[in-house]
Design goal:
- By secondary structure, the chain is mainly α.
- It has helices at 6-52, 57-68, 70-81, 85-111, 118-140, 145-164, 166-173, 177-197, 205-235, 240-252, 254-265, 269-295, 302-324, 330-350, and strands at residues 113-115, 327-329.
- The chain has a two-stranded antiparallel sheet.
- The mean pLDDT is 81.
Length: 351
């Protein structure tokens, strides 16, 4: 068949392009709305299931963070599976930068001060910094994704085990008494706030079924959202790092941002910090390192280094500010938000 040429063919291609764009916009908007709305239902039902299983408040908070992270994790895995690894890495790492600004920085700006115990900052912050550095090393190709995954699990698994039953675990670990006492005190201080902020009703079997159904809907909607965003990015020649690191990262993180600002407003500083740091850790683990270990990581690039370096740097800055001042005051919140603005500007400049 002869190749179409001339004005009729051009108009046909333009019409097909318009239809493709409309479908992509619909997929992105509908996917975002459905995935974010259903993620709230998923979080609430998983919390009830966790309460029925007798999980500690700290583990319930971790479970809630994982459920709220499903949109960005799914979007990242979908992009990596479609060989759009820059978008996949951008979703996870850009989401983590956004989390620090929206969950902690914006929370401090809105309420004036987010009070934090230093022990809580050190305990959660040590894990968060370790994961951020492992993420940076993997993105730069210093270590393979598999080694990066191992480095994260080496720290994360003991952390989760201690959160699940710190008294029993620490007594069996035979750590020096000062270390055990410090860890128990740090976890107790966090759980004193989490018991108020995360206290769901006891779940029933139907809650587990609702959670499974909500998870399926969130996954499907998040896949469509990522595909829609990727199609629009390709159509308008938008750089992958912008699509993943800015657009998808911000949209998929909105549920966590709303929850953290609410917790900060209620004076639950440790719960807000836990939400932000645990969310970032789980993003790196499930959204980047696990799929990258199976499929592969994007080749080291200037864009990848930029986004990952901002993640490490803003994590360190936030933790230092929180430790020095026993929390985050409004000026510190503005500083963190301003850093996110600089991050956005630098990504746009390099793309």
């Amino acid at each position: 068949m002869a190749r179409l040429a001339g004005p009729p063919a051009r108009r046909c291609r333009e019409a097909l392009g318009a239809v493709t764009v409309e479908l992509a916009v619909t997929a992105f908007v509908a996917g975002a709305v459905v995935s974010l709305a259903m993620s709230w239902l998923l979080v609430s039902r998983l919390e009830r299931v966790g309460e029925r299983l007798g999980l500690s408040e700290a583990l319930l908070g971790l479970l809630a963070a994982l459920a709220a992270d499903i949109p960005e994790i799914t979007a990242s895995v979908t992009a990596i599976a479609h060989n759009q690894r820059t978008i996949g890495a951008g979703v996870v790492i850009g989401s983590n930068v956004f989390n620090l600004a929206a969950l902690l920085g914006l929370g401090a700006v809105v309420v004036g001060r987010v009070g934090l115990h230093r022990k809580v900052v050190v305990l959660g912050g040590a894990v968060a910094m370790w994961v951020a550095i492992a993420c940076l090393g993997s993105v730069l190709g210093v270590v393979s994704p598999l080694v990066g995954l191992f480095l994260v699990l080496v720290v994360l698994v003991p952390y989760v085990v201690v959160l699940g039953g710190h008294g029993r675990v620490l007594s069996r670990a035979r750590l020096p008494s000062p270390w055990s006492a410090w860890l128990v005190s740090a976890i107790d201080e966090e759980e004193l706030e989490l018991v108020v902020s995360v206290h769901p009703q006891r779940g029933r079997p139907k809650d587990a079924l609702v959670a499974v159904a909500a998870l399926a809907v969130v996954v499907v909607a998040s896949i469509e959202m990522e595909r829609g965003a990727s199609t629009l990015g390709q159509h308008y020649a938008v750089a992958n790092v912008v699509v993943g690191g800015l657009v998808l990262a911000a949209v998929t993180s909105l549920p966590n941002a709303v929850a953290a600002v609410y917790l900060a407003g209620k004076g639950r500083g440790a719960a807000a910090l836990s939400t932000a740091l645990n969310s970032n850790t789980l993003n790196v683990l499930a959204g980047l390192l696990v799929p990258a270990a199976l499929i592969g990581m994007a080749k080291p690039s200037g864009e990848g280094f930029l986004v990952a370096a901002w993640y490490v740097g803003l994590t360190a800055l936030t933790l230092v500010l929180a430790y020095v001042d026993h929390g985050l005051r409004r000026w510190a919140g503005w500083a963190i938000v301003a850093c996110y603005g600089a991050f956005v500007a630098s990504v746009l400049a390099i793309s």
